[in-house]
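Tokens for chain A. Residues wanted.
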């Protein structure tokens, strides 16, 4: 083989398998004889690192597979060392087994519909004007457009103000208080605003008495949760409190038993739902459970019409069930399992089982998706809502393979949906024994996001979600896919202390809603 460096030839012979191959290469000149370099046999190369590295052998005829590999912990040495110390640690592994077991043991049953002030003690205080919102904590001056609209609508609904301007003055003057839904065992989609008079669904785990809550779904179109405002929005909210909630409560009472939400979710996954952004089958199954008893209630026809037209109404049940399960997994010392994943339109935050009530936040991401006519990415608010609690429970983006039809709503392809569920399994601690994905051979949905796995692989949780207009008063303008920022997980990993090798998980008491 002859190599010419800077025009000066150096000659040497290389024998591969006792057969001399001769090649001339010019460094600093024009490549020659690259075919001889690779030889006559097919050459297969796995390229790791900078994508451009793969182009040189590929241009010479090699079959190159570029591996999507990134250094652990984004290449941060101290963080990577922390990750290495926690990986395979006996105390952490035992803690995660305990947390996953608690999560999977929950059997969510819908038991009641009741006013928020009766479900959440903090809202039953006449001396306070408290509103709950989606995501990690956020002050009024920092709230995004759709959430501000939700606050205004709630103040009008409660009679605290008689106009949008008056409601804004209340908030500006500090007369309104705010707290995350998650701090009160509740969750709300999009803006997630819950006010004292709003009806909530109660979901219970009968074995433990633990309970979680969510508001009722408004349906499609102009909705307060998306930041829409107007008399049409307010009229629907008042109707939901005065007509829909009493009808649902009466139907539940007539049944004589609650509704098994785990069974509905499991069946819906076999019917094309992922139980976050697509709830068509689950909503129909839930309506079937109630239809006979609803038919005997006052306003039965209009209630049944509203529910049959609302393909989203199971979403809030899915969220409450997920909150119930993930709360059960919270509070296990040394566990790296994510128990909350929420967005307020400004920040995204996660909570981790072994790290108490701390939030680990990063700026909210934009949603990549499909927009309604007349709108585009420039109109969109960043990611918002508590509905990503479904992803922490193995639904939504983690079960995307179960819902190929959703790609027509949020974008992407069927192949991408299948790949997404496979990738989410790489950052999960277990698979759900009841929630199975038929398109992947019936394997369980990946469940239990592991902070360590996210930092090790660089794969971040994928979320299916709606898109709100960034200005208050407009509402939904599309739907799509987004992800949790890696920064949230890096901050959480920094906060995790490496336990002593003889440490073991310690059971801690967790308050259960009365």
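Reply:
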């Amino acid at each position: 083989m002859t190599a010419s460096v800077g025009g000066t030839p150096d000659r040497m012979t290389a024998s591969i398998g006792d057969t001399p191959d001769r090649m001339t290469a010019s460094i600093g000149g024009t490549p020659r004889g690259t075919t001889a370099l690779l030889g006559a046999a097919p050459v297969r190369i796995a390229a790791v690192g900078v994508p451009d590295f793969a182009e040189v052998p590929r241009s010479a005829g090699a079959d190159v597979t570029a591996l999507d590999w990134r250094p652990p912990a984004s290449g941060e040495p101290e963080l990577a060392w922390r990750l290495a110390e926690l990986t395979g640690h006996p105390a952490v592994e035992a803690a995660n087994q305990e947390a996953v077991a608690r999560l999977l043991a929950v059997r969510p049953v819908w038991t009641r519909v009741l006013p928020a002030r009766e479900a959440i003690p903090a809202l039953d205080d006449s001396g306070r004007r408290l509103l709950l919102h989606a995501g990690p904590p956020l002050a009024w001056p920092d709230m995004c457009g759709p959430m501000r609209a939700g606050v205004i609508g709630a103040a009008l609904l409660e009679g605290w103000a008689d106009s949008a301007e008056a409601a804004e003055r209340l908030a500006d003057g500090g007369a309104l208080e705010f707290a995350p839904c998650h701090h009160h065992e509740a969750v709300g989609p999009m803006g997630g605003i819950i006010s004292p008079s709003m009806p909530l669904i109660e979901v219970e785990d009968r074995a433990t008495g633990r309970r979680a809550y969510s508001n009722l779904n408004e349906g499609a179109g102009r909705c307060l949760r998306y930041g829409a405002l107007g008399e049409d929005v307010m009229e629907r909210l008042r109707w939901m409190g005065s007509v829909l909630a009493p009808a649902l409560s009466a139907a539940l009472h007539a049944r004589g038993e609650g509704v098994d939400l785990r069974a509905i979710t499991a069946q819906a996954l076999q019917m094309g739902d992922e139980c976050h952004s697509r709830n068509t089958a689950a909503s129909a199954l839930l309506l079937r459970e109630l239809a006979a008893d609803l038919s005997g209630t006052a306003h039965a026809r209009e209630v049944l019409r509203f529910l049959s037209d609302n393909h989203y109404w199971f979403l809030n049940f899915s969220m409450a069930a997920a909150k119930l399960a993930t709360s059960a997994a919270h509070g296990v010392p040394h566990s790296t399992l994510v128990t909350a994943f929420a967005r307020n339109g400004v920040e995204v935050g996660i909570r981790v089982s072994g790290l108490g009530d701390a939030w680990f936040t990063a700026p909210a991401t934009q949603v990549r998706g499909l927009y309604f006519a007349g709108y585009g990415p420039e109109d969109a608010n960043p990611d918002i809502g508590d509905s990503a609690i479904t992803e922490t429970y193995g639904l939504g983006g983690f079960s995307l393979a179960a819902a190929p039809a959703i790609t027509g709503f949020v974008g992407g392809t069927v192949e991408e949906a299948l790949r997404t569920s496979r990738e989410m399994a790489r950052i999960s601690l277990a698979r759900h024994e009841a929630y199975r994905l038929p398109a992947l051979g019936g394997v369980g949905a990946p469940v239990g996001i592991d902070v360590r796995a996210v930092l090790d692989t660089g794969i971040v949780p994928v979320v299916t979600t709606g898109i709100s207009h960034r200005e208050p008063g407009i509402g939904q303008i599309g739907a799509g896919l987004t992800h949790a920022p890696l920064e949230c997980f890096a901050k959480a990993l920094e906060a995790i202390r490496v336990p002593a090798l003889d440490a073991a998980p310690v059971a801690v008491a967790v308050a259960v809603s009365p």
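The first strand starts at residue 2 and ends at 5. The domain at 106-319 is CATH 3.90.1710.10 (Enterococcus faecalis V583 fold).
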